Amino acid sequence: MMRCLVVAEQLLVMLIPVIKFKFLLLRRVRLHVCKSVIEFK
User: 34 is in which domain, residue-wise?
Assistant: First the structure.
């Protein structure tokens, strides 16, 4: 049981930066798209 928790914790530690990076990337892309749409209009 404890071993399972340790593995889960390690996975979370590895995944959090990836999720944060994807979130930032998504937000940047969305901002870029919004700016492009505004300029296009």
Answer: 1-40
Whether residue 16 is predicted with pLDDT greater than 70 in this model: the reply is yes
Contacts of 16 (CB under 8 A, 6+ apart): none
Total domains in the chain come to 1
Q: Which of 27, 5, 24 is nearest to 16 (CA)?
A: 24
Task: Write the DSSP assignment of 1-41 as a string of letters.
Answer: -HHHHHHHHHHHHHHHHHHHHHHHHHHHHHHHHHHHHHHH-
Residue 32 pLDDT exceeds 80: yes
For the segment 2-10, the average pLDDT, to the nearest whole number, is 90
